[in-house]
Design a protein that fits this description.
This protein has 2 domains: 47 residues; 194 residues, no CATH class. Helices cover 17% and strands 46% of the residues. It has 3 helices and 11 strands.
Length: 252
């Protein structure tokens, strides 16, 4: 085959490929939804948050990220049941998570994760320290026998998130309509005292908000070019044949 015939053949193939369009390529995309909120309400509480499920017609789901946020307010009360004065301080810690009842790492035997969710989203926050690095949010001295003292309102909060990429977990997020996840809280009181016999209690309220983000491969690419008329392709082919014949005739 001569150089001219090679060129004509390549040109015709490119023209045909362009005329009928190139296949589209998948592209990464994402969408996020805000969850229905909870509270603020007194702890401990167990509630549900909901959000839209992933529409599989958009493409192939590759990752789900669940993010939870909370803002808590706590009042800690110290009571001295001893015969002598007490000194000390303390702070509050709140755990928020997604599971069947309450967040993990607690003494509650009913604290179990969702059977299909391998990792639980946990937000673990503590009331702020007055004099870091000391961990106490509230300090007191000279608490007399039989007396109580309450902290001011301690406000604190935080955010936690977990991403899932395994197909078994992500399958629970695919469908139509809304999906519901159970959330729960635990509050701990931490204190250190000397003298007397002091116990600590708290009253805590908290809210829950969050988002879910779906990452997926969008199977819909750029629009395909319009298909060229059959007559146009015929002219391309005929022109290529005539050019090759003229080349051969000139070489005789």
């Amino acid at each position: 085959m001569t150089k001219m015939s090679k060129f004509i053949g390549t040109s015709v193939l490119v023209a045909i490929a362009t005329a009928f369009g190139l296949s589209s390529l998948a592209k990464a995309d994402s969408e996020s939804f805000t969850m229905t909120g909870v509270g603020p309400t007194l702890t401990e509480f167990n509630a549900n948050v909901s959000f839209p499920m992933f529409d599989s017609s958009l493409g192939t789901l590759t990752q789900v990220t669940v993010a939870l946020s909370t803002t808590a307010q706590t009042v800690i009360t110290f009571t001295n049941h001893g015969l002598t004065a007490s000194n000390g301080g303390g702070y509050a810690e709140l755990q928020l998570g997604v599971n069947d009842r309450v967040p993990p790492n607690s003494s509650d035997p009913t604290s179990v994760p969702l059977s299909w969710m391998p990792t639980i989203v946990v937000v673990d926050v503590s009331s702020p320290a007055l004099n870091p690095p000391a961990p106490f949010s509230f300090n007191f001295t000279g608490l007399a026998a039989g007396q109580s003292i309450a902290s001011p309102v301690l406000t604190y909060g935080g955010t936690g998130s977990t991403s899932f990429t395994d197909s078994g977990t992500m399958a629970h997020f695919i469908g139509s309509g809304d999906m519901s996840l159970p959330v729960g809280t635990l509050v701990y009181d931490w204190d250190r005292t000397s003298g007397g016999n002091t116990n600590v209690t708290d009253v805590t309220s908290a809210d829950v908000s969050g988002t879910v983000t779906y990452q997926y491969d969008d199977a819909v690419g750029a629009p395909l070019p319009a298909v060229a008329p059959a007559g146009f392709l015929g002219l391309l082919l005929a022109g290529g044949v005539r050019a090759v014949r003229r080349r051969r005739a000139a070489g005789r």
